[in-house]
Task: inverse folding
């Protein structure tokens, strides 16, 4: 436990120091998105990595948070913080309502159902032109502010968003080491066995789904207020797949892995600007290769590989660490 | 047009897209029965059928029949490669990793297609003219008749193959019980490969016959694939009559919904139906529930 605290403090210190080294500039803007994507990846990992329940529609909750916040502030003039609270509630309530029927499904069926949910929400973003502005987007969303400080620069947004990101990581680490975290892992390994042991699997799955949606919606709200412009294209199927890729790269069930996956998948396309259209091909390859050869993700796979090489025994990655 | 003529029109166009959904649904069902994998890349086979026949027809300048045959063969080759490279090497894979792998395969195929042939939408010419045929006040295109004809032929051949040929029977045995099938000397791995061959060929054919009506592009596979899956789910993931009915039902509901309610939400209709069926009757509309083995 002590090691966990030290690890987290090192991360927090790193987050604090990085802007001083960069002194503003374009990379700060990218790091803002790294923060948002980390929140999303960690949220999805709670569901995918811990409870073992796939969601191919997580961009929907991100989008609902973003659009709720955007519409309430830009169209109805609500205070951004209040809008964020409403947005978070909206995401959570939707997850709770659809969670009960949807999480009864398993494996492929669950994947398809969440995918369907994501696409329905995406279609609504596109078609409800009166509210969302449709494909041409929603603009004029105000920045968040505390007192007289308006979060309108990359550096200010960086600290704001990474504050939320660190809180998400801390919450998830706590959850992972709690009774609930252990119960979730039991469901992952065998739902029937978990239920026999007295875990209320159904309720627990819905609750973790709702928590995951809550974090995603908050991330969406933050995204809306930093971007000040939304268009449906950011919340489509491709983004849901990108989130799954982040979690898989980092390793299912590893919180720092998700952080790593989000950093990698957000920075990589930025650095390979010339390869813009290639990124989706690369994601496809990554998903296949990682699942085949390193099912534990890079965070566990690389140490395991080094261990295997030094021990001269070929056995890459183990499912749970 | 009066209302009953409009409805007839919607029914006819619904049947024709429904036939396509049924064909795609068959592909899902065949692979599922052989492997218990839902192949998320199924829609990409459909897309490849359309894109490759466009390529052979308009870029290589082959006659249409040759282009169609080559497109089906090439897609089948992709299906075989996918099975060989991504599915067969997996041992003791969890359903979660299988989902992730087939999704990876699907976006890989889609992305490569985009890189090779670009993001443009292409039209395939109709197989035989585009003179509308009048049926009781509604009109139908010759291409619709091609769709009906080819779908019926594929369904009949499929039925004969699975019921009467030794390979077809062996594949059904694998679907019932893989272990028992391998104990009586059936090469299960070969049957899995066959299932990918049949599904990719069937999917590409569906993509080819619908391309003259709806055009084709690198990204049409997602929607078509999901709707085919929806048809297969309604049919309880059997490759029999249920999936055909499921496809037709979906096609008709979608076309009525688009015509009478809102065309913008047309695609959402299919997914609402999909969710409802998964919630209420995940075993399909026409099947009794199985008990789950632990």
Result:
């Amino acid at each position: 436990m002590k090691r966990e605290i030290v690890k987290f403090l090192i991360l927090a210190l790193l987050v604090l120091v990085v802007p001083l080294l960069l002194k503003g500039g374009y990379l700060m803007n990218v790091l803002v998105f790294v923060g948002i994507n980390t929140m999303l990846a960690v949220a999805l990992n709670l569901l995918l990595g811990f409870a073992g329940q796939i969601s191919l529609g997580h961009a929907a909750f991100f989008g609902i948070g973003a659009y709720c916040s955007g519409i309430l502030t830009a169209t109805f003039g609500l205070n951004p913080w209040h809008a964020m609270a409403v947005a978070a509630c909206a995401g959570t309530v939707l997850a709770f309502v659809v969670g009960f029927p949807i999480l009864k499904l398993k494996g492929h069926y669950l994947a398809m159902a969440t995918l369907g949910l994501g696409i329905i929400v995406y279609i609504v973003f596109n078609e409800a032109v009166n509210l969302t502005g449709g494909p041409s987007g929603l603009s004029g969303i105000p920045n968040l502010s505390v007192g007289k400080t308006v979060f309108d620069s990359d550096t200010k947004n960086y600290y704001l968003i990474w504050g939320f990101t660190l809180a998400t990581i801390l919450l998830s680490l706590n959850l992972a080491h709690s009774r609930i975290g252990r119960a979730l892992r039991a469901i992952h390994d065998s739902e029937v066995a978990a239920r026999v042991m007295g875990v209320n699997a159904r309720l627990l799955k819905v609750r973790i789904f709702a928590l995951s949606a809550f974090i995603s919606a908050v991330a969406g709200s933050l995204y809306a207020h930093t971007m000040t412009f939304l268009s449906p294209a950011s919340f489509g199927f491709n983004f849901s797949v990108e989130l799954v890729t982040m979690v898989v790269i980092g390793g299912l069930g590893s919180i720092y892995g998700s952080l790593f996956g989000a950093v990698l998948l957000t920075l990589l396309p930025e650095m390979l600007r010339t390869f813009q259209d290639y990124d989706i091909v690369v994601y496809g390859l990554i998903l296949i290769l990682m699942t085949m050869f390193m099912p534990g993700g890079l965070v566990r796979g690389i140490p395991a590989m080094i261990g295997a090489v030094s021990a001269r025994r070929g056995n890459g990655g183990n499912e749970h660490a | 047009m009066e209302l009953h003529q409009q409805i007839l029109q919607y029914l006819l166009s619904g049947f024709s897209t429904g036939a396509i959904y049924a064909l795609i649904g068959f592909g899902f069902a065949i692979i599922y029965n052989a492997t218990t994998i839902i192949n998320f890349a199924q829609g990409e086979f459909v897309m490849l059928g359309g894109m490759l026949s466009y390529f052979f027809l308009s870029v290589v300048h082959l006659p249409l029949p040759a282009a169609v045959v080559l497109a089906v063969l090439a897609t089948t080759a992709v299906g075989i490669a996918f099975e060989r490279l991504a599915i067969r090497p997996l041992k003791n894979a969890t359903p979660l990793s299988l989902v992730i792998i087939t999704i990876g395969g699907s976006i890989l195929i889609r992305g490569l297609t985009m890189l090779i042939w670009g993001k443009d939408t292409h039209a395939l010419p109709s197989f035989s003219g585009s003179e509308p045929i009048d049926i009781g006040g509604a009109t139908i295109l010759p291409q619709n008749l091609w769709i009906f004809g080819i779908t019926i032929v594929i369904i009949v051949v499929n039925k004969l193959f699975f019921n009467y040929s030794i390979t077809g029977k062996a594949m059904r045995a694998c679907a019932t019980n893989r272990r028992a099938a391998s104990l009586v000397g059936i090469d299960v791995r070969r049957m899995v490969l066959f299932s990918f061959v049949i599904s990719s060929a069937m999917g590409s054919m569906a993509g080819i016959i619908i391309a003259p009506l709806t055009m084709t592009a690198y990204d049409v596979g997602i929607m078509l694939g999901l709707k085919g899956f929806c048809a297969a789910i309604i049919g309880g993931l059997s490759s029999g009559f249920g999936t055909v009915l499921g496809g037709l039902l979906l096609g008709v509901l979608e076309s009525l919904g688009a015509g009478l309610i809102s065309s913008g939400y047309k695609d959402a209709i299919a997914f609402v139906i999909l969710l409802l069926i998964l919630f209420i009757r995940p075993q399909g509309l026409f099947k009794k529930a199985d008990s789950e083995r632990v």
The mean pLDDT of chain B is 87. Strands of chain B lie at 133-135, 138-140. DSSP finds eleven helices and two strands in chain B. The interface with chain A takes residues 37-38, 40, 86, 89-90, 93, 95-101, 103-112, 114-115, 222, 226, 229, 233, 262, 264-265, 267-268, 271-272, 274-275, 278-279, 282, 294 of chain B (CB under 8 Å).
